[in-house]
Structure formats: structure tokens, C-alpha cells
């Protein structure tokens, strides 16, 4: 028996192909402003109101006619004629053109005096000084922030048109059970789609997790057809490798076409990129670290090309506390535990092959080793991408001695021949 491997496509090449092959879906929905944080505006948003609608007081005090107190000065108080008491934000009555602050007013014999003259418009916010009806609040393609919600509501906007992208997530595997159920021998709780939904949701995608599909090509075919019909992007967890129950590539090929099967990245090498009815289908490995990496490095860049991306990730410089070995033919993503050390940061590479879920919890950053780089020596300062808060040196969760240091095993799709 001879095992034949498919060629692994460079990650950068795959991403470029995906951007070219899959144009941005044209889906627009109307959302209440109060629930629109993280959404991307479909078009420019204009104010429905003029703010302030009239001249308003900028300070607590008295509205006055400025020309009547021009002669005021230190030691020469002048009376306020027909002053109108105002608080900050109150409308300025007609005929008044300035405000004397309350701390600059002296009460004497039932009258009010001031030694501080004011200029026309002083301590007044003119009508429309913040925004006028019809003025632009947010441009098209703007990711709505929490602070934007207050401005939109204040300007009379209660609903906003936003772009939407729908992502379907299908978990596969007869060994899987839903969260809350006890898996049997050789079983596992399904978690990959929950992680992917949280990751892609941060980019503004509307994610739908479907039920677990057993290892049956007929059932998988029906699930994929349904997922493609209801979504703009479909992500299938597990079934992308070379096992006897890995049907994802064959079903995608039957319903559409497989564009890439095997990507030069670790973890996540057996990932699939396909196209069905013009829509992208991404098959990710079932191994949790590989599934997360494939979703992050394939689905997120495509969403970003469509205008959906999470808040910019912080990047730090850290010094490696161990040697990182990497295949120069691959883009590799290495989990790290990063801690503060004095004025800088120290990064400990986590052992490959350790418990996948706990490794993800212990890691608070990762290192991207680009293809062509190869290994990186201990003590080298590298750029890292945090996934959590960096700890103090004595808080670091170091791997236990029992955890083996070994390469994560991943296989490419293979064909048996005699």
C-alpha cells in the first residue's frame, strides 16, 4: 500500500485565492441602534436632529445682554439688568446673548452684580454647534462602537441599516455529544463550532451552529446543502483529513468543487477550501487547536476582506524562553505563555501535542512563524499576538513534567493504491 499526499498550498496563496474567488455578499438588515454595537454600517448615517436645537447655556449662571455690562471690572461691579437664571443646558431666552457664570455674580441688596464683563456668545453653545440635521454621523463601512450608540440615539436615530454576513457551522463525528452530555469511551464533547462562532462573532458575523452530523456521507450531504442555502459562508468541523470516516472533501466535490485540500500551515494543514453555489466552504480539522487555527487564519481574513473584522489585535515584543522549531515550508502558529519580566515580556513556547483544550487555556498569546523562516532560537525577541492578559512572572502556568514535548500529528488527505 502506498500513501500519496496532496500538495500543500502556501497559506498566503490560499488567502489571496479566497479573496478573489468569493466576492462580498450583499446582505443588509435593519437593527435597533441599542443592539448594533460591532455591526458595520451599510451606508452613511445622517442626523435627524439639530443639536443643540437652540442656543443653550454652557455654564450655570445668568443670561444677560453683554453690552450692558461692558464697564464691569475689578472693584467696579455693575448691576445685571433683567438677568435670567439658567443652568447648564438650558435654552437661552430670546434677546440674551451671553451668560455670566454664577461664581462671577455678587448678590447685594436684592440685586445681582458682576465685576466680569462677557463677550457676545460667551458661555453659550450656539444652535447646531454639535451637529445639524442632515449632517453625517457615521460613514458607510464603519464598525459601530459603544460610544457611537449614544450619538446615534441623541441624533434621533433608533434603527440603522447594517451589513450582515451569515456563517453556518456544522460539527461532524459519530463520537461527538452535545455539551452537557457525558461522552462514552472514545467520545468527546462538541466544542469546535462554539469556539469558531465566538471567534467569528467578534468580527461581526451572525453565526448559526447546527446539530452534530454523524459520519455518514448522506447525512453530511444534506447538512451541507441546507447550510449553504441559509448562509454566506459554511464552516465544517472535522472530516477533512485522511481517516476512513472523513467525508467532507468528497461531499464538497460532489455538490460543488474543492479548490484547496491541504494548506502549508501548522496546525491545521488538512484544511479544505471549497465552493458550492458560489459560496465558500471551509473544512477544518477536528483537533481543537488545529480547528481554531484554521478558522482564525482562513475564515477571519475572508471576513476582513468583506469588511468584517474584530477590533485590532494588540501586538507585543517578547523574548523567547525556549527554542521554536518550525518547518520552513509552512506557516506555523505556536502557542505561548507570556509574562511580564521587568520592563519587557518573556514568552514560553507550549509543548506541541499537549492536551489541546488546556493548552489553549494556558496560552495567552501565539507566535506566527512565517513560511521560509525555520526555527527561532531561545532569547530571540519576536512579535507576538496576545490572546489574553499577560501575567506576572510568578503567575505563569508552566507545563507539567508529564506533558510530552512532541510534534502535533497531522496528516494530509491520502489515496491508497496498490
UniProtKB/TrEMBL annotation:
Residues 407-418 have a biased composition (Basic and acidic residues). InterPro entries: MoaB/Mog_dom (IPR001453), MoeA-like (IPR038987), MoeA_C_domain_IV (IPR005111), MoeA_linker/N (IPR005110). Residues 393-418 are annotated as: Disordered. CDD domains: MoeA. Pathway: Cofactor biosynthesis; molybdopterin biosynthesis. NCBIfam families: molyb_syn. This is Molybdopterin molybdenumtransferase MoeA. It comes from Methanoculleus chikugoensis. The lineage of its organism: Archaea, Methanobacteriati, Methanobacteriota, Stenosarchaea group, Methanomicrobia.
Amino acid at each position: 500500500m502506498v500513501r500519496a499526499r496532496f500538495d500543500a498550498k502556501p497559506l498566503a496563496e490560499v488567502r489571496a485565492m479566497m479573496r478573489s474567488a468569493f466576492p462580498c455578499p450583499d446582505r443588509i438588515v435593519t437593527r435597533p441602534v441599542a443592539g448594533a454595537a460591532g455591526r458595520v454600517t451599510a451606508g452613511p448615517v445622517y442626523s435627524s436632529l439639530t443639536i443643540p436645537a437652540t442656543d443653550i447655556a454652557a455654564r450655570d449662571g445668568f443670561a444677560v445682554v453683554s453690552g450692558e455690562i461692558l464697564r464691569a471690572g475689578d472693584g467696579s461691579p455693575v448691576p445685571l439688568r433683567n438677568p435670567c437664571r439658567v443652568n447648564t443646558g438650558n435654552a437661552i431666552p430670546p434677546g440674551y446673548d451671553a451668560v455670566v457664570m454664577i461664581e462671577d455674580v455678587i448678590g447685594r441688596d436684592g440685586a445681582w452684580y458682576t465685576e466680569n464683563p462677557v463677550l457676545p456668545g460667551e458661555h453659550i453653545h450656539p444652535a447646531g454647534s454639535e451637529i445639524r440635521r442632515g449632517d453625517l454621523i457615521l460613514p458607510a463601512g464603519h464598525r459601530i462602537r459603544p460610544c457611537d450608540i449614544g450619538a446615534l440615539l441623541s441624533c434621533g436615530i433608533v434603527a440603522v441599516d447594517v451589513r450582515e454576513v451569515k456563517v453556518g457551522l456544522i460539527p461532524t463525528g459519530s463520537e461527538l455529544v452535545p455539551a452537557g452530555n457525558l461522552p462514552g469511551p472514545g467520545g468527546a464533547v462538541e466544542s469546535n463550532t462554539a469556539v469558531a462562532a465566538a471567534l467569528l462573532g467578534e468580527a461581526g458575523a451572525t453565526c448559526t451552529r447546527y446539530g452534530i452530523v454523524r459520519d455518514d456521507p448522506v447525512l453530511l450531504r444534506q447538512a451541507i446543502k441546507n447550510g449553504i442555502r441559509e448562509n454566506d459562508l459554511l464552516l465544517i468541523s472535522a472530516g477533512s483529513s485522511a481517516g476512513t470516516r472523513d467525508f467532507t472533501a468528497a461531499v464538497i466535490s460532489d455538490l460543488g468543487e474543492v479548490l484547496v485540500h491541504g494548506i502549508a500551515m501548522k496546525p491545521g494543514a488538512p484544511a479544505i477550501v471549497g465552493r458550492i453555489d458560489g459560496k465558500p466552504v471551509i473544512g477544518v480539522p477536528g483537533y481543537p487547536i488545529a480547528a481554531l487555527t484554521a478558522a482564525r487564519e482562513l475564515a477571519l481574513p475572508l471576513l476582513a476582506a468583506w469588511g468584517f473584522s474584530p477590533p485590532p489585535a494588540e501586538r507585543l515584543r517578547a523574548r523567547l524562553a525556549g527554542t521554536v522549531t518550525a518547518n520552513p515550508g509552512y506557516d506555523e502558529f505556536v502557542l505561548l505563555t507570556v509574562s511580564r519580566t521587568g520592563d519587557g515580556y518573556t514568552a514560553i513556547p507550549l509543548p506541541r501535542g499537549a492536551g489541546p483544550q488546556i493548552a489553549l487555556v494556558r496560552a495567552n498569546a501565539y507566535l506566527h512563524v512565517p513560511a521560509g523562516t525555520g526555527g527561532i532560537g531561545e532569547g530571540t525577541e519576536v512579535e507576538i499576538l496576545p490572546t489574553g492578559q499577560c501575567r506576572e512572572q510568578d503567575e505563569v502556568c508552566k507545563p507539567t513534567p508529564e506533558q510530552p514535548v512532541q510534534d502535533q500529528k497531522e496528516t494530509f488527505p491520502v489515496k491508497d493504491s496498490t
